[in-house]
Amino acid sequence: MADDAPPDAASSAAARDGRARRASPGGETGLARLAPAVLRRRAYTAALLAFRASPAPVRRAVVRAATPGFTVGAVVAIEHDGEVLFLRQPHRVGWSLPGGLLDAGERPEQGVVREVHEETAMRVEVGLPVTTQVNARVRRVDVIYRLRTSERPHVVAGGEAKEHRWMALDALEDADDSTREIVELLRRTQDVGCYDGRVVAEAPSTS
Q: Which of 12, 129, 139, 201 has the fewest CB atoms within 10 Å around its CB?
């Protein structure tokens, strides 16, 4: 019969089958024996490769859809003789620093310079930001600059600002939570070693 196999051929097939079962307990395939962590890493790598091969507009759309949206603003602490310029604005509780939300396509340094001019009539230049504040609760990021001046500039409150005052950071009492958090960050940037990190634990040895 066509279905009958020669004895030695059948023995060889049985031997191969036995070796396969011994090499793969329970008859599992090699893929099924892989640890879940290995499978996740392989799937993640494949997804990254597919993402990299996608057109730039597709990549941007995926990132925007998969990550939480945050508004981005920029503020500046303008300091003179130990005091900082604060503004009173009707849409904010208490005093706040000059600055505001960035326009579409605007860089933080451009946005803070524009806001300062609108709110104080001053024209300023800023250096690198000293820190950033990420407020996950309200989904806002503020880029924070510091500007120190040897002479107290003349300020004319305008735009959204209705009043201005120079005061020490420690003297600020009437302010909203966002401004208080920014002021606390500014205080911490003056601490020695505040920008230094450290290795908390080494990677486990594989030897």
A: 201
